Amino acid sequence: MQISRRTFVKSTAAACAATTLASTALAQETKLPPAFDSLRPLGDRVHPITTNEFQSRIAKAQQLMTDAKPDFAALYVTPGSSMLYFTGIHWWPSERILALLIPREGDPLLICPAFEEGRLRENLKWPISIKVWQEDESPYRIAASWLKPKDRPVGRIAVESGTPYMFFDGLRKSYPYPEYLSADAIMLGCRALKSENELALMRLACQATFDVYKAAFASLHEGIKQSEVSAMISAGYAKMGLGGYSVVLFGPAAGLPHGTREDRQLREGEGVLIDGGTKVEGYESDVTRTSVLGKPTDKLQRAFDTVRKAQDAALAAAVAGEKCGSVDNAAREVITKAGYGTNYKYFAHRLGHGIGLDGHEQPYLVRGNRVILEPSMTFSDEPGIYVPGEYGLRCEDDMAISESGPAKLLTPGFAPSLTTPIA
To answer: Which of 65, 155, 160, 241 could form a disulfide with 41 if both were Cys (CB 3.0 to 4.6 A apart)?
Structure first.
């Protein structure tokens, strides 16, 4: 599997700020400029996902398994964002499998290493049956024994796409009779459609990102390094009791969408691209702003004006009932008509991605994607123009598909201007 620089930076930053203690230590190590003084924890503005909502998600998955033609006997999920989605359980993945089995009918089951049972029970949001396995036992045989039907055909097993191969292969060898298929359609039907509580958590995450970015842009000065701005942003999130990441690129470094290894110092007249976000109760923001130190060049200003028009076109095209690919088409047409090349010449990536418990998740706003937009689906809206060796510019906001009409922003608002990236 190839890991992009952006993914690496994001995962590294998340690992470094995984707990409040680590975030607090980071804040103490970085002396923040006065612009960060007003940042405060979110406090009682955060309303976690309820037990009833977790249980309703399992019921929705069971309904989708029933409605499939032919239907599915069970859904197989291992640690990751989908485990979190269905149970609220954060679990560090390892070679010792923790598995969630959701049958088409009836109650789910967790299969857990015996020595981890106590820790797992501490994490349960409501009582879920648990079967444990000792170090010299096969967890897959336990799963197979539970899955084997007593008086009905074997059926099909839906495997969540993030499942490591060894966990899939272990079950398939212990229970070879069913047909094993991707659970993508089930997961899309569940996770792509956000509840009001999920949308509220994403709005909070976006607002927190805006607050931190505003302080960071106000603190820029000639000679500051990209790494120093990233450290300020991480410490700003920590001041709010959050973990966050950023990719900071100056001048020509932004000509590659996710940058280079160079740690540039900022010069007068250079563009400043900041991409990143945070999580609130696991729900992510993903926001990019591009500004400039001093007066922008005509090239950078024209690129900004074009990209903002492309964002507007995408928001207007993101309408329930339309195809995902049509939103990419609308933004790309603006950039092409402005003279920035066809296809992916200077607008080098898709318009956007689904967002929720994962920063990038199904479905994707990319040319040719025929998935139909539905109300409460959430996406990034992030057109960009990149001229390697010269400059790069991207504006990114998060949006939710409406019941009718254009999508609505989850971020507080688009960038007002190149020199005022956050209102």
So the answer is: 241
